[in-house]
Amino acid sequence: MAKAFFRLQKFLRRIQFLLFFLTAAYLMAGSLLLLQRTRLVLQQGSRGTPTNQALLVPEEMSRVGLSDPRTLQNPGPRLLVGMDALQEPALEQRHSPHWLTSRNSELRQLRRRWFHRFTSEQEPLQTAGSKAMKRSAEHKGTYMGCFTHDSRERTLKGAVFYDLRKMTVAHCQEACAERAYSYAGLAYGAECYCGNSLPAAAAKPEECNSECKGEKGSVCGGVNRLSVYSAEQPRAGARPRRNVIYRGCFRAPENLTDTFPASLIQPNLTVEMCSEFCSKKEFPLAVIQGQECYCGYPTRRFSLREGTDGRRCSGTHNASSAAGGEYCLVYQTPVQDTRCTDRRFLTTKSKVFVALSSFPGAGNTWARHLIEHATGYYTGSYYFDGALYNKGFKGEKDHWRSRRTICVKTHESGKTEIEMFDSAILLIRNPYKSLMAEFNRKYAGHLGYATDRNWKSKEWPDFVNSYASWWASHVLEWLKYGKRLLIVHYEDLKQSLIPKLKEMVEFLNVTVTEDRLLCVENNRDGNFKRSGAKQKNFEPFTQEMKDLINRYILTVDEALRGRNFSGLPREYVPR
């Protein structure tokens, strides 16, 4: 009996010790979780630009240069971000580039909170200037059936659209009809494909089982399956099909038949006849020479880089009287050039971690569009912008350190963030243009314009005071800490697209064909032109703002030259 009692007592003591251990472990885990949450709250609370925030600016920056940006040091005094009262640094620090780079940490925190707040607000909204998508369970046009879909060998080879949030059948039909296609196919609930011929291989109806992202109860294809509809023709009073675009007068290639895969000879040929013929053949170019119509793509034989005087193509308004020998008229049809629209993730992890770095408003999204279409690989992002993901930038949802993307977008400029990358493409844009572009994005999304009320509000001068210095410090920090840099000026990329894009692609260690680059040039704008009315000769900058920005321009220009890079383009020169 005593022996049994002793065993029971020993067992209870072990249980008591075990319970004590579990209780202690539980309390420690809870404490760690609480500390982590507190840290996250503090970080989130520091990510923003208060409306009353105005950074101090150097009054004599134009007298100060950088002989070697690597000698810059971060001064001790810091601004108290988010407070009405700011702690000013010493006067001598305010009058040197040391002050400028020290602002980078505070500005980075400001931008992070503002960026995340903006994207969270913008994701459920359509960009300004675009119409809200209508949900309608009643589809226009005829349902043609369910078909197999191979992304590498597509049957519907025309335009491709993505809306990973609000895709509907009606939206896809209207988009394809607007571009003169006969059929609209939907896959994966969010992808829209256009074409003029039906897929050859039919699939079982039940295999098209993906619900449309923007229309409950409607089917938008499936995994490797297309729900195909006839494209809806515009109703009376609705927006007509997109007009053809006149590209110019060009010297005709030596052998038109070999250069262009489709042709038509038609008496009294008009631009509309040729454009409609080429659209049905799914070609983006309509070329007219006399009574002959040719369809095709820009190629090395016919690159459209060097136009000639339009007077050499006589009768540009009447195709039948156009030059019949050396020259030809070229028009852009509503059909999209799809030779460079296929994109994918890297099959193996990249050994070199490359950043695509820029100040906000410097054209980073446009550069990503060009890089993705030139290389055929998705680009990643340090952030997550739902609006960009919904429009086809699938790398937005991929973790930025996954190394499955060809490069990673970032606006960061802290030492730690910069040194994480092995190399970087540093995209620089005129600060006047960058500030206006970012202000437009803040108030009207990626494709809209801020209103007069926004420009005349107190937000605009506060924005300039805070973000002008960030434009400069962003470049200075990357020059200081970046390991291997390719400097690309937005203006040079816009003016000489293919040569500059070649440099970027070679820097990324990707080999591309000339035809693919020409396809990118043919689709250079993508869907990134701002919509709505743009005010001509609009000048929102006061003289005080110009004086401030001009000092930063001089500082950055000298820093670039100090690192043996070419200086800023002449158009950056102080106004």
TrEMBL record:
<dbReference type="GO" id="GO:0008146">
    <property type="term" value="F:sulfotransferase activity"/>
</dbReference>
<keyword id="KW-0677">Repeat</keyword>
<protein>
    <submittedName>
        <fullName>WSCD1 protein</fullName>
    </submittedName>
</protein>
<feature type="domain" description="WSC">
    <location>
        <begin position="243"/>
        <end position="340"/>
    </location>
</feature>
<dbReference type="InterPro" id="IPR000863">
    <property type="entry name" value="Sulfotransferase_dom"/>
</dbReference>
<comment type="similarity">
    <text>Belongs to the WSCD family.</text>
</comment>
<dbReference type="InterPro" id="IPR002889">
    <property type="entry name" value="WSC_carb-bd"/>
</dbReference>
<dbReference type="Pfam" id="PF01822">
    <property type="entry name" value="WSC"/>
</dbReference>
<dbReference type="Pfam" id="PF00685">
    <property type="entry name" value="Sulfotransfer_1"/>
</dbReference>
<dbReference type="InterPro" id="IPR027417">
    <property type="entry name" value="P-loop_NTPase"/>
</dbReference>
<dbReference type="InterPro" id="IPR051589">
    <property type="entry name" value="Sialate-O-sulfotransferase"/>
</dbReference>
<feature type="domain" description="WSC">
    <location>
        <begin position="140"/>
        <end position="232"/>
    </location>
</feature>
